[in-house]
Write a structure and sequence with these properties.
Largest sheet: 7 strands, mixed
Structural class: mainly beta
Number of strands: 11
Helix content: under 10%
Strand content: over 45%
Distance between the termini: 37 Å
Order of helices and strands: EEEEEEEEEEE
Number of helices: 0
């Protein structure tokens, strides 16, 4: 399974970015796809997840600013990020897992850098 993320970059405070992540290979469906991020010197943290039917979950720090969505036909998850803050600067990793795979295995992409400048 490969997860290819794109869309990161440099943006000013208050700006917007859209991340995409496409899964390929052999994986179970239905599944959950989502995003974590890791800032320098900090632990990786959950940003948002979307279940197969699109039900989202968000970290408190991004609620109201980020929107996760997915296109199951394209095996792709998106993260629309708006009102970006400097503290959003991090490497963003997409991931996928399915409760139908036992034992559970989480698949991770290589990450895409998001830098928010003041």
């Amino acid at each position: 399974v490969q997860l290819q993320a794109s869309g990161g970059g440099l943006v000013q405070t208050g700006g917007s970015l859209r991340l995409s992540c496409t899964a390929s290979g052999s994986f179970f469906s239905p599944n959950v796809m989502g995003w974590h991020r890791q800032a320098p010197g900090k632990q990786r943290e959950l940003v948002a997840t979307a279940t197969w039917d699109g039900t989202p979950t968000y970290a408190d720090s991004v609620k109201g600013r980020f929107t996760i969505s997915r296109d199951n036909a394209k095996n792709t998850v998106y993260l629309e990020m708006s009102k970006l803050k400097t503290e959003d600067t991090a490497v963003y990793f997409c991931y996928l897992y399915s409760r139908y795979e036992s034992p559970r295995r989480d698949y991770w992409g290589r990450g895409t850098q998001v830098t928010v400048s003041s």
